[in-house]
Fold this protein.
Amino acid sequence: MRSWRLAYLNLTRRKVPTAIAFLAIGISVGCSGIIYRLDRLSEERFSHLAHGGDAVVGAKSGSIDILLGSLQLEGDYPGYLPEKLFQSLRQRVPVHFEDGTETRSNSIRSIIPLIFFGKYKDHRVIGTDETFLRRPISEDNLEFAQGRWAAREGEVVLGALVSEAEGLGIGDLVPAQVWTGGEPGVPLPLHVVGIFRPKDTAWDRALYATLPQAKAVLSREMAAAATKSPEKNQSIWNADVLHYFLIYLEPGAFVPLQSLINQRTVGQIIRVSDAKEKLEELTGSGRRLGIFISSLILFLSGLSVAAMMITRFDGMSIQLAVLRAMGYSRMQVASWLLCEGLLLGAFSCVLGATLDALAFSWIRELLGSAFPDPSVLSISIFQSSPIWLISILATLSTVGFPLIRLSRQNIHQSMKGM
Amino acid sequence: MDIRLEKIQVRLPEAAKFLFEIRSLEILFGSRVLIQGPSGRGKTTLLHLLAGLFLPDSGTVRIGEHTLSSLSDRQRSDLRKNHFGIIFQRLNLFEHLTAHENVLLGLHSAPDASLKATRALEQVGMSHLSSQQSGSMSLGEQQRVAVARVLATLPDIVLADEPTSSLDDANTDLILNSLFQATEGKTLIVVSHDHRIEKFFTKRLNFDEWVTS
């Protein structure tokens, strides 16, 4: 009888102990897989954060919200900023405040406008201008893989991932929809005129059009909304608005600009490095705890399975001796034990992976904004594969104890129960 | 394949005294030997010694051309696999396996193993229970399966430890006839207290007569 067959029979005929071991390993693999994938998700969020200069200005909210909204393209539709403020900062003209004071900023190397005005599936359509392509730091620049920048209304440039995932090329029509918060609605057909090279950041999963195009869309949308519900004033600046300004600064320029914008405008400026650090601190302790718990679950389940397997194999010492007495070599008996461990480990992993696949989305939803939306960052079930490998190796290693016993076994004494 | 033992000394683990000593014993190939003697003197240990399940503290065990102490563990396993069939005192069937699977286990991966197992179960009158797990069988039925496990392999040397202890008279006759049939021209060594089987053996050895304790 072959080792696989004997291992299979030994597992399936001893239903209760096998089921307990199977469930114990399966559940621990499932739990560990979920925690591990959440950790990967959190890490991916950092690694895919787009490059957007030294500072970002957004409507007043939390610094992490501004960071994730602007450079990770996450979250709800953001609040508006007046375009006038953007123009003043860009042109370095004095900014006049309601209290009569005025100030000017000469310390801005580059300022890039961003406004969201449409969506194609889960990808956002961003209105910006050519400063988005010509940045003071060349590494941050997006380059064209094909085509050119959108020059007219109705034209769009695709991020690499949008082109790849949706199979779109130059000249194709993108059936996007207007998005000004809430569910996307009015059709917004756009022609592809360019495709960016991949940057492995959030910029890869967006579409880019001109500011006038964005302004025109917003204008129409606001007029339509005003007709439907005149009492609802969407923006005091009408369509002359933006969502974010990405700013490249001269050294030491952040603090004066912060005091200017945070104290005297509706905007809020964040230093990108500080906000990233804050986000990392916030999620990092959770991640470390997650990894610790994940390891602990695996370790504890490994211990309990090891105890179970050792008891199981201990009770099999006479069987091992009988096999040896019948002429089975140590290698053959060892291969039977290893097959049994491997079968148990592999089938438990299938159970664990199924639990992981079924429960992950639900748990991700429960954790809310602590993790990016699935539309922004998805994570494959196969990311849990290191956990599967570890658990199979751990299950196999529990066979080590009976293998050691086997190598020292005195067949005669075992059979006589000595 | 003759069996020769010379100047054998066997000690119980951690005991100062020898369990038994055998100056010389020769069992020629084709012999049918019944070993009798009081309990606790080492009859089962002697069978295990002959099968190479352990090595003596001193002395030589020769099975045909092979000296057991000069063989590796792997070679002793191969010797048992190719030449020995053992019926254990405690039966030692795998309780969760069926009668058929238990017999298959003894056949390793021999060609037509399934057919051989079926025939062996027929020989001991157990074919009707071939798909029943041995744990749910009576002691007598288990004993017959254990015998079938050996019969299926047609070994050169059969070592049987109390093979009829749990059988009634009819089944004792059936089992012994099957054993004699299967070992025609081969060596059969039986250890037993069962006086009913003495009549089947021409050569009987009283353990005390040639073994020193």
Summary: Chain B touches chain A through 33 residues (CB under 8 Å). The mean pLDDT of chain B is 85.
